[in-house]
Structure prediction request, 166 residues.
Amino acid sequence: MKKRESLMQPLAGALAEAAERVRACHVCGNLDTRDPCTICDDTRRDGRVLCVVEDVADLWALERTASFKGRYHILGGTLSALDGIGPDDLRIPELIGRAAESEVAEVILATSATVDGQTTAHYIADRLREKGIKVSGLAHGVPVGGELDYLDDGTLSAALRDRRPV
Prediction:
């Protein structure tokens, strides 16, 4: 790079500032320069609906859709017996407490469709149902614009199993 000093120094400074200022929200686990984060602090959001995601990237994937107007809870991963990750290694106890002690009427489990993601979702669903909290999950199946001959067997099976009236 011919302009190494003029380009790299500002970038390095911005990264150092971000590393110093960005922190995890004590409510949901999102990363922000504020605590509580901008999403948790937004009074226009519906506090009765809580969407549970594995990590910050999942939260922002949902935010890009502009379809969800509730609040979030970031777990920090998934349960994994092989990796020795149990409920106390994630933010599951905080989720159960938060859902039971607040105005939350529904928890949407938006974990991945992997074995670990679904195991985590089932574990959380069982704990929340014990508290009388409504639990739902994201639909699985054919993506919008998807062609059937390109889909894997698992996706097609889920689409058939979870079909809905037209």
User: Anything to note?
Assistant: The beta strands are 23-24, 31-32, 46-53, 70-74, 106-109, 134-137. The chain has a mean pLDDT of 92. The radius of gyration is 19 Å. Residues 4-21 form the longest helix (18 residues).
